[in-house]
Amino acid sequence: MNTVAGGPDAGTLRAFGVGDQRLERLAGGRGLTWRAGDVVLRPHDGATVTDWRAGVLAELAHTSTFRTPRPVRTVDGPWRAGSWEAWEWLPGRADETRVADVIRVGNAFHRAIAHLDRPAFLAPSAPCPEDPWGRADRMAWGAARLPDDPTLDRLAAAFRPVRARSQLVHGDLLGNVLFADAAVPAVPAVPAVIDWPPSWRPAGFGAAVAAVDAVCWHGVPVAQLDALGADVAEWDQLLVRALAFRIATLHLLGAWDAPAAVRHRPVVDALA
């Protein structure tokens, strides 16, 4: 058995049936995701969210356009062991420059979950999330006050009501769609959607966040924003909300600095 500082302990590995597997830290996942054989382990998001998401993705039908990893139960049956959850390991790699393909895969995923009811933990009356991403999501949609910042003031002045139907959404698609690796021909070609942080927003919001991320951080030209959402209702407004969400998140993480402002300024100028 092979444990590593910061990773799941020996008891957690035994609980998920991988006590004899070598432990390997994976890229991404904020450095908190580990592979043990055919299982990926990561800190869970609390019992309510973790068990709900595992139940959904254990049964979700895959298509020719997307798949998701299946959750892994402990040997005793629950979806969690201590502070950890586990998922099927799927090969492949993210490619943030393939934003149009990421949006296409995300659209297929959103169609597949469009029938699901809003879970109680995403209800307006639910307590505000403690994590920066959940808090920033509420800020971008008017349920909490945005951080004091002239850039966010400009974006907030451009907010208009969004009338598109809300549903469950993956709000962090760009780095969480895995494509087949050309160097590994045996990898199936169907892209995989991983690390789903559920939110209740118009389906196009997931595409808007991916588009904003691609322009601000991965060299996609600002001029491509319109084409990326050509078929999305209220695309301009969803982009404004997505940009406010990302900038508010950076504020909450203490990462909004001059270089980040420079990266975001062209998109702010284009939208606000």
Model description:
The chain is an alpha+beta fold. The chain is 37% helix and 13% strand. The chain contains nine helices and ten strands. It has helices at residues 10-15, 47-59, 99-113, 132-140, 150-157, 204-217, 225-228, 235-252, 258-271, and strands spanning 23-25, 34-36, 39-43, 80-81, 84-88, 93-94, 166-170, 177-179, 192-193, 198-202. The strands form three sheets. Strands 1-2-3-5-4 form a five-stranded antiparallel beta sheet. The chain has a three-stranded antiparallel beta sheet with strand order 6-8-9, covered by helices on one side. Strands 7-10 form a two-stranded antiparallel sheet. A hairpin with an 8-residue loop joins strand 1 and strand 2. Helix 6 (204-217) packs across helix 9 (258-271). The termini are far apart.
